[in-house]
Structure formats: C-alpha cells, structure tokens
Write the structure tokens for this entry.
Amino acid sequence: MVDTKIKRTIKTLEGKIEVGFGSGGVGFFKHKIDMESPSNTEAIDTNRITQSQKSLADLPLPTTVHLDSCKFTVPADAIVELSPSATTSHPIIDDETDEVIGSCRKVKRNHLAFGVKSVVVHPGADEVVIELSAKVLRERYFELITHNTIEQALDYLNESNGIILNKTFILEHGQLLRVDATSDLYVSCYPPDYILALQLSLISPRYQVENYYSDESVIFTSRAKTNRSRLSIYRKYPELHKRKNQKLRHYLDPKRYWHMIRVEQNLKSFKLIKNAFGVKDRFISEVLKSDRNPNHVLFLKIMPTVLPISEEYYSIKRSHREMIKREGMKQVIERFDHDFPKIREFVSRFYPGKRSNPSRIFSEYKDLLNEQHANNLLEFGLYSLVDEIERRLKHAWDEPAN
C-alpha cells in the first residue's frame, strides 16, 4: 500500500512525473524533461542520463575537508592596511537589552571582492570578523575551500578595496565561527529521483524533514533544542541558475553540473564544529587537516539501515488477533502520517502512570514503519538510490590514490 507521503509527493510533482506502475527498478519514475535541462548537450533520456554523462559519475571525488561558506575571526593585528573611506560605522546592539553597547566598522559592500560576504572590524574587541564562500575561488569554485585552496581564497579576499590582511597571520590565528561542510556527489541516474527517494525514506525520530514539497532539495534538521544539526541535500544545477549566482556563471558552465547533488551540513557553533571534525580548537588550519567525514556520519544517524523484507516474512502464519492488531496499528500510522513522534505521543495516552512501560508497543510501531517504508522503497525502485547516496558520500572526502 502506498503511504500518504508518496501520494502527496506524486500529487506535488504532477506534470513533472508520470508514474508507470509495473515497470519497477531504478529510474521507475518517468520524468518529463522541462526547460531546465541542458539544451546544447547530448540528449538526456527521461529515465537516465546518457552514457557519456553517466561516465562523469566516475570523476575523482573530493578529498579531505571541503568547506563552502565560512565565517571566521582573526585578531586585529592581521590588518595590514585599512582605508577609513572604505568602511562605514555601525552600532553594536545587545541581543537581550537592545541597547547600544559599542560600534564596529564594516567594509562597504561595493568594496568587497567577489565571494566575500562581509568584513567587519571590531575595535573594542580588537578583532576582524570575515565571512566568505567558495565563490571567492571563481573558476575553482567546485574545488571548494580546502587545505589546497585556502591560500588562493585569502589572496582573492585581499583584492577587496580599502583593506589588506596578512594571509599568514590568518592561517595561523584564524578561528572558525560558522562553516558549511560540503560534499559534491556525481550521481549515475536522473538527479530528482534521488531527492524523491530521500523524501520518502524512513528517518530517525530524532530528525525531521523540511522542504518536503520540493523535488530539488530535502533538508533534515535535528529535533534537539540546542546545537541542532542540519543536513541539506539538493540539486546543484537549478541552484546555479538562481539570480544570486549570475556572476558565478561567468566563471563556469552550469551544464557541467547537471548531474550533481550537493550535501551540506551547517555548523553554526563551536560545539558543532568540534564534534563534527574531532578538533580541540576551531583554528582554520586544524579543521582543514581533520580526517573526519561529518556529512557521512550525520547521514547515517538520520537514515537508519532499511533492509529488504524477505518472502519468508510474509509466509509467517498469524493469528486472527495478531492480524487485527496489525491492521489497527496501520490505521494509527496512516492517521498520523507516518510521524513516529506523534504516534508515540498518541499511544502514551493509553499508558498513564509511572509504572506503565509501553516501550514494547513503541518497538512494534517502529518495526511496522520500517517494514512499510522498506516495501515502498523497493516497490518504487528507490532503495538503490538511497544506497548510492550513502556509498558516494562515504568516499566523498577520501584521499586520492597515489
């Protein structure tokens, strides 16, 4: 039985997807190629990319730590030259009292080099806060910020008008405040199928899904109250065509990345950075030398292993009472749209008191949810796509063979 998530997705993607029941296998969904598809490249099959494009999936994968957006701080001693005319004064407001507690100087936006989001000088704190993205690398954008490209990124940073910073000083003393750990995956089949497969997959109850109605991205966020982890998985090709990337398109050809899916983890605190990269401090140089692969680790936490259901499972003889119980549980699952936290809350109402322990009932619901989702993934030929994402993500930061 197709659950309501699949029904909603098919309805949402109506006009883009025709469902051909009975065809099965990877590429089960027959897509109508719309205007976004590259027009002057080889023809793209509605179920698969062409063999020549598929060979691009064998391109060398990224190695070591790869970062896109970075926000970091360095002592004011890093400033070699600062022109007063290149900056404007801004008040610093206390978040709790809304009172002005000081002032800072921001480098004017039209003075910043391409890819640099902001440069803020805090005289009182004797520091400079810099935010930039891998776009600063221009034609090398997809190499992202690594231990191999960080110096060139800082060279381009110094092309900003009115401010010059000591590159060596930044490398030695720069500390990260926020980063996006990024993995670019070259997939072998039609990219939207992977997004759909992830949207329909059973995830850990510790996480929730955002952007469900989009066929271009899926975002998983932790349900934790503090230090919430966030993993974004999206198609890079449509994102490259957004207005904000107009200048970036001067340096690269978006059609080359039609088959790319980006996995990005937003690390917005020192604790998240420390746990993700296994570092004691948040120095830029130390993080870039880390041997951790945080995106793969988080992916495994979000996506529990889903095993295909064997034929032997269906041959098990069940009593009439067991059959009625299972059908009743299916109704509860349907009612709460396969949302386990809501199911758990509902079931707990029937077990009041400290002595009540419905953990066995919760386990039965989890098993049934796993069974239903595994069957859905197998029925729609999507299980192998999730598996491919996991395998490629696992090796995305591997060092190349010598």
Summary: The radius of gyration is 25 Å.
